Amino acid sequence: MKKKTYKILPVTILFFLLSCSHQTHDPTVITKWQYGKKGAVSLTYDDSTINHFRIALPMMNEFGFPGTFYLITGAIPDSEYQGEFVGRDVNEIIEETVTLQTNKDNFFERASAIRYLGFQDVYQYHRNAGQLFESGDVEEAYQVIDEAYERVRNGDFPVGGSIDQYLYDVLFVEPGTELITWKEIRSFDREFHEFGSHTVTHPYLSVMDEANIRYELEKSKEEIKNQLFSIRLIQIHILLFSHGRTHKDRQLSAWKINPDNMAFLRQNP
């Protein structure tokens, strides 16, 4: 039995090859993989945890495998652009929730702001609302946001929360755990591996308003360009969405913000 062979490619090359096969203005041409290979594999790592670079990357080098590492830039301590809410004073938003329930007109602003209200643990409501919204449970997502703001108004949360708390949770590490630095990332092979944007703070983009989606996408890419200069940079933002009509609308919103550098992966149900 003939042994199958595969080529491990950086993800940018895979997207280029796939895009070539999906052009609608030219006849479809079925091509073969380079070097007579039977297929291709891309090895990717999300979220820029330190284990990716201290454990996985040396192993990749040992086997000669190129890797694609998606960086949460705001989780790298010496980044210029940190997580922030783009919009009006959050105290105005909190005050508004006294008389106006969450609805389709204010949901995205409130869900975007909720991680930046200055209270501990409130960020969990952003996550809960995002999960519900992506499951199609839109009204339940509204109710989660209403509950969060009501508890904030009632003083149920300790003062002093920051986006760092959210980021440590995303990375599944305890607060204070050592994180990767740009200096260390710059020490890696500049021609072998590639680095892509995974937003500034890894929010649920599906429940963010346009201004904050734009900040998360554009500032993450800008940070990587500024920090890594000549290192190869994937200028494609990979967004994971579940199935459902709701998320096609949000995908379109993100695509309109950055149409030249946007691709979507669809999550299995």
Structural category: alpha/beta
Helicity level, as a percent range? Answer: 40-55%
Mean pLDDT: 81
SSE string, helices as H and strands as E:
EHEEHEHHHHHHEHEEHE
Largest sheet: 4 strands, parallel
Number of E-type strands? 8
Number of helices: 10
How much of the sequence is in beta strands?
5-15%
> How are the strands of the biggest sheet laid out side by side?
3-4-5-6
Which regions contain 5 or more consecutive residues with pLDDT less than 50?
Answer: 234-246, 262-269
What is the general shape? globular
Output the radius of gyration. Answer: 21 Å
Termini Cα gap:
36 Å
Overview features:
globular, disordered C terminus, alpha/beta, 269 residues
Give your account of this protein's structure.
- By secondary structure, this protein is an alpha/beta fold.
- It is built from ten helices and eight strands.
- Helix 5 packs antiparallel against helix 6.
- The longest helix is centred in the last third of the chain and has 19 residues, at 210-228.
- It is globular.
- It starts with 6 loop residues before the first strand and ends with a strand.
- The model is unreliable at 234-246 and 262-269 (pLDDT under 50).
